[in-house]
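Hi there,

I know you've been waiting on this one. I reran it after we fixed the sequence typo, so this is the corrected version. Both the input and the resulting structure follow.
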Amino acid sequence: MSVRTDIENLKKQKEILEDFISKLNDAMEDAVTSINDKTDDLELNDDDEQILTEVSLLSEAVEVDMMHLLRDLEELVQGMDDMDKKFKLSK
């Protein structure tokens, strides 16, 4: 397998990851919105409020972690692409 093939495979995996992150973010936002909508009229105790806050914060943390993962993958693909170009130029 060539470096070029590896780079192209990483680019495809990056696109799949971008799609996954988008769908995951949408699902988490929908879940938090749904929970908030359903609990608006309820009187929640402190524990319930704490759980809802933690779910919301966890959702945001997952989004940030996924974006960092995506950025790292983009940097990896770019680095491999740059190395491949330099290698071809040095031949």
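Quick highlight: The helical segments are 3-39, 46-90.

Best,
R. S.
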